Amino acid sequence: MDRKCHRIEPGAPMSNINGHSSENSKKEADAINDSGEAFHEKYTAVENDASNASSMPKLLKKRMQGILRRDNLNNSQGKPAIEKINNVAEVSETLMNRAVQESLLDEGILDEVRGWLEPLPDRSMPNIKVKKRLLDALRNMKIHREHLLQSGIGKIVYFYSINPKEEKEVRSMAKQLVQKWTQEIFSPECDE
Hints:
The protein is mainly α. It is 67% helix and 0% strand. It is globular.
């Protein structure tokens, strides 16, 4: 079996590993950026049209996925990963909109929120603005037990609550969420 060995020079783009050319990575990044822009346009059009509000959760989920992919790609290439920072205000406002929360939760939006809160490919944590906005949105959402259990979001929030390197305010927000969710999971279901 003939295997090629590639020497990776310091500072070389990660896209050159495994024979990928930087041109292919550029095409991939352009495709991801184009899809993100398309989702943004569709998302704002749906958001402004009440008759299409039922498709908004899917569009938001896809938009959040695209933003996460772009940030992860940029991070792995040594570029600034700022897409989440630039979009977190709009995303968190939508998450706190009581009129669409149930449909967002049923669509599995907590999986995307978890992805935004998890470490980047280089193991660095998300920006503090992203963490605060998303933890605040989670605190203001009426999340049911099944959504918590299916998404696994509690693991990353718990990590924030016990991480001694985390900002005090973020740790405190995460601890409050852990307490709230623990009560939610272990209390008997009741219809309100």
